[in-house]
Amino acid sequence: MNIALFALALIIFLIAYMLFRTSRLSKFPQPAAPVDKPDIDQKIVSTHLAELIRFRSISTESSAGFDPQPFLDIHRWIDNTYPLLTKNLEKTCINQYSLLYVWKGSDLKLTPVLFNAHLDVVPVEESTLPEWKVEPFGGVIREGCIWGRGAIDMKSHATGLLEAVEALIRSGYQPKRTIYLAFGHDEEIMGFNGTKKIVEHLKNRGVQLAALLDEGGLISIGMLPGVQDPFALVGISEKGYMTLQLSAAGSPGHASQPGRQTAVGILARAIALMDDHPLPARLDYFLPTLEKLAYMLPFRMQFLIANAWLFRGLLIKNLEKSPQMNALIRTTHAATMIHGGIKDNVLPASVTAKINFRLLPGDSMDAVIAYEKKVIGDPRVEIKVDEANGGWEASPVSPLDTPAYRSLELVTRQVFDNVAVAPFVFPAATDSHHYQPICANIFKFSPFALTLDEQHGMHGINERIQQKTFMGMIAFYMRIMRVWGDAEF
What we know:
By secondary structure, the protein is an alpha+beta fold. The chain folds into 2 domains: 42-219 and 234-238 and 397-486, Zn peptidases (Aminopeptidase), CATH 3.40.630; 240-385, 2-Layer Sandwich (Alpha-Beta Plaits). It is 35% helix and 22% strand. The chain has 15 helices and 17 strands. It has helices spanning 2-23, 42-53, 69-81, 83-88, 155-170, 195-204, 263-276, 287-292, 299-306, 308-319, 323-326, 365-376, 403-415, 452-455, 467-486, and strands spanning 90-94, 98-103, 113-118, 140-142, 145-147, 179-184, 211-221, 231-238, 240-249, 253-254, 332-340, 346-347, 350-359, 381-385, 420-426, 442-451, 464-466. The strands form 4 sheets. Strands 1, 2, 3, 6, 7, 8, 15 and 16 form an 8-stranded mixed beta sheet that branches. Strand 4 and strand 5 (145-147) form a beta hairpin. Helix 2 (42-53) crosses helix 5 and helix 13 packs antiparallel against helix 15 (467-486). It is globular. The model has no long low-confidence stretch (mean pLDDT 95).
């Protein structure tokens, strides 16, 4: 009897303790005072973005297919379209096609900040053209949207930054802190000839940055199950990037007399084993994100989050159902390319496949390779890092308890109607990782709200941005430039 009472008391205490932990999760933050909307002509700025979209500034893996003219035309377009920026900022062309602007501050003792964007876009697959509602490089404005390749990724960012500086100069604003604008020309193919060269240029001049803002997380609608309200995700780190090449050799010959397993079968089995044994999920980086957004979630999820020490497995099981959530809690892999064989009745001499990895901070390239070798467990499968890009580790995590991050969060809430803001590890690759040698406060945030349908247009079909969304981007850039430009940190 005493044992039963003790067990009951223990259960009651445990439940009470877990409910107490749940009650201590984040609450709705104090409202941020709104800021005045800037005096911007929506028609004019929309026209400017449409004009920039019309330049076919396409990244190509092969230098033979690269057309430099659109990038040179963009340089002239900026000079003509933004006369105040052109007059007041110092411009440097980096490696011919990338641009670096310097808006000198009045107090040169303050460490500068930098705003980054890229001018290049991915190509449009010819087979998808019938599905586009407009010509992809037509720069069409209709139905309240600006349409075309780059409308989201990321000519809206580039135009937004240019519009913000032009408007601030027109209003008489002069920053205390020097502000850099950087526009790379090859982000979509890893930025080695654009942003990396910009960083080398700055490093050679002894420039260190107090903070940097690049593309990244956005104001998401419908990303979290059960959450209808929008919330902003600010990237404070970036997953690493690595592509492994798997290869298997076979005995060439006639398909009528095969051995027990061909090279195709060997490699297919290896890939299947990788798919069946993904790297373990970890909550150490995404749990703080969930805790910050907890007040928006159903009570069941709040309870799991607050007591992740006990319900870790159940929480992971809920999160990994969504590809978007799964990418935030583990190092992911995707088999993206496979090549082998010359004819349907000929046994292939060799087969190769490429597996792309996005590495969560804490999972090194060497550790991932060792894990996959153990999973595959077949000496016939050769595993090596693909030489095309080399790969890189996940970026360091930028600190949150700093004026740079706190002011970024505040401005986001001021401009976007007190939207919830949370830090996270950005799952994709951006140019900003090149800046690690000269900046510790790197933030990845695209200041716009997009539905999941609109997000699908990025690198896809019918890419577009709403005009009112674009106006919000410009307002955000103007505000954060003022705040970072005058803050003493």
